[in-house]
């Protein structure tokens, strides 16, 4: 991003706090306006959760966090903002008042999104000075982790909004026509209504309903959604067979979807009591952290598969990937990243196997620097690691920002010896070192051989330049 952009967050509750975190951790400056005297604490708590989870989705350098401030008035908050996100309570009269004040003080080219779960843009725009400026940008909780945003509004405006959201790692979905509750909440409401009936009729408890989701179809939905899953369920004949087989059930009286159970005090007590029995041993903050850690672990698993939400994360990493080091006459900065949740072990620190991954990734950067890149590998030549001598010096914890500094100790012929120091970026603490030996190989014979062409020239030049450097401090100790 060439210059820092500013997002004004109007309403800093559950959703506004999540938006603030999403923008801030993607390098935007953020101004929050909310009449609640507790707003700084509330946003601070959401931000703390976001800081320990969102950066851990990345396998490359994360953007530098933007600046956060709390405005004394809505007018001050929106004055210079590029994006304004309204996340006030779900009441049309409040939203109309907020939009009128926003439009009286914001730039005419600012984007004004509303987090509304249910209102249509035409309802939000009633009485607005510039109706086309207001659109629905409906997120999902936690906004800092879940990528999808439903965009509804004037085409030109939502296309501009889409570009911004792409840049902060989200998955904007432009809804074709406005409709109450957009797409996802209509769908979720059907599931919610049926769940209420199952509890009211004594068929299932809150725990049992959650179990059929989390041990079953919820996992399918997270990676393939509804239709791709049902296509497979149709067997070789796919979707047509699925519809032929299960379509008739739709007219059987299985569901009570058109009918809404009355939320009497008795039913509310039943649900709340069951929910207390199921989850009351955890505070809401604990549950949020459990949810976030699970989401990060699941999204990282999908990243390894380059599928669904994981494919989106890989695309974001490709955008944030730093250029390869070019100065060869000083130690090489080969890696910078955050330590994610799925790298932790039962001792509450990073598992030793992950150090191997960090140093392997750092070694790959040196390979790419000398031209031993995917094209070179496809031509049948590569490097194999034959030894890694790792020293674990200090504990590495969840969320630590680390970088690796690499020196080439030897680069002659087939031999490439690297010395990596893994350092915690925040306090410069040395966490681990690795003395790594790589040998150049032919992928055809699976035996060592001399590097060829430009790779040979570059590796020799790199080795010579680095041989003039003093030994790394940790080698001398
Ligand atoms: N909670 C969810 O899961 C969820 C998901 C998606 C969208 N939404 C939508 O997001 C919006 C906000 O919901 P929430 O769950 O964050 O509610 P919330 O009650 O947690 O937060 C609303 C915030 O707005 C503030 N507020 C009240 N009047 C205001 C005003 N005039 N100007 C500025 N701020 C004002 C309140 O002090 C409060 O902090 C709603 O439109 C809701 O439909 C909620």
TrEMBL record:
Pathway(s): Amine and polyamine metabolism; carnitine metabolism
An annotated GO cellular component: cytoplasm
Chief place of localization: cytoplasm
One of the GO biological process terms: fatty acid metabolic process
EC numbers: 1.1.1.108
InterPro entries per the UniProt record, alphabetical: 3-OHacyl-CoA_DH_NAD-bd, 3HC_DH_C, 6-PGluconate_DH-like_C_sf, 6PGD_dom2, HotDog_dom_sf, L-carnitine_dehydrogenase, NAD(P)-bd_dom_sf
Subcellular locations according to the entry: Cytoplasm
Keyword line: Cytoplasm, NAD, Oxidoreductase
Stretches assigned to the 3-hydroxyacyl-CoA dehydrogenase NAD binding domain: 7-177
Residues given in the record as NAD(+) binding sites: 11-16
Quaternary structure (record): Homodimer.
Function: Catalyzes the NAD(+)-dependent oxidation of L-carnitine to 3-dehydrocarnitine.
Family designation: Belongs to the 3-hydroxyacyl-CoA dehydrogenase family. L-carnitine dehydrogenase subfamily.
Stated name of the protein: L-carnitine dehydrogenase
Taxonomic source organism: Hoeflea halophila
């Amino acid at each position: 991003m060439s210059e820092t952009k500013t997002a004004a967050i109007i309403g800093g509750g559950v959703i506004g706090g999540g938006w603030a975190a999403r923008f801030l951790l993607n390098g935007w400056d953020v101004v929050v306006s909310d009449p609640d005297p507790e707003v700084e604490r509330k946003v601070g708590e959401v931000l703390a959760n976001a800081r320990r989870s969102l950066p851990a989705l990345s396998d490359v350098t994360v953007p530098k966090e933007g600046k956060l401030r709390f405005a004394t008035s809505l007018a001050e908050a929106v004055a210079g903002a590029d994006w304004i996100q309204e996340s006030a309570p779900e009441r049309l009269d409040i939203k109309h008042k907020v939009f009128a004040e926003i439009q009286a003080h914001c730039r005419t080219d600012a984007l004004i999104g509303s987090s509304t779960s249910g209102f249509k843009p035409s309802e939000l725009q009633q009485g607005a000075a510039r109706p086309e400026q207001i659109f629905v940008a409906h997120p999902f909780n936690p906004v800092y982790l879940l990528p999808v945003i439903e965009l509804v509004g004037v085409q030109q405006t939502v296309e501009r909004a889409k570009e911004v959201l792409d840049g902060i790692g989200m998955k904007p979905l432009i809804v074709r026509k406005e409709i109450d509750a957009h797409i996802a909440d209509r769908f979720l409401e059907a599931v919610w209504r049926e769940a209420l009936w199952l509890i009211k009729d004594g068929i299932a408890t809150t725990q049992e309903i959650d179990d059929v989701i989390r041990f079953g179809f919820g996992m399918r939905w997270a990676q393939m959604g509804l239709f791709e899953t049902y296509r497979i369920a149709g067997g070789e004949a796919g979707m047509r067979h699925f519809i032929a087989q299960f379509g008739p059930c739709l007219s059987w009286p299985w569901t009570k979807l058109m009918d809404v159970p009355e939320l009497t005090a008795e039913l509310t007590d039943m649900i709340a009591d069951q929910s207390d029995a199921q989850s009351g041993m955890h505070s809401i903050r604990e549950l949020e952290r459990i949810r976030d850690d699970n989401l990060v672990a699941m999204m990282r698993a999908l990243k390894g598969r380059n599928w669904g939400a994981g494919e989106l994360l890989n695309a974001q990493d490709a955008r944030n990937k730093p250029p390869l080091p070019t100065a060869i006459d000083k130690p090489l900065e080969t890696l910078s990243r955050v330590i994610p949740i799925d790298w932790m072990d039962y001792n509450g620190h990073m598992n030793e196997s992950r150090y191997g991954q960090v140093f392997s990734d750092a070694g790959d950067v040196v390979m790419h620097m000398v031209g031993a890149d995917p094209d070179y590998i496809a031509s049948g030549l590569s490097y194999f690691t034959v030894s890694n001598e790792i020293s674990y010096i200090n504990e590495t914890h969840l969320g630590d920002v680390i970088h690796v500094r690499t020196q080439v100790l030897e680069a002659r012929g087939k031999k490439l010896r690297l010395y990596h120091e893994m350092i915690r970026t925040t306090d410069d603490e040395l966490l681990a070192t690795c003395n790594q030996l790589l040998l150049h190989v032919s992928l055809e014979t699976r035996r060592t051989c001399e590097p060829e062409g430009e790779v040979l020239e570059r590796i020799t030049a790199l080795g010579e330049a680095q041989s003039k450097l003093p030994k790394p401090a940790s080698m001398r100790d």
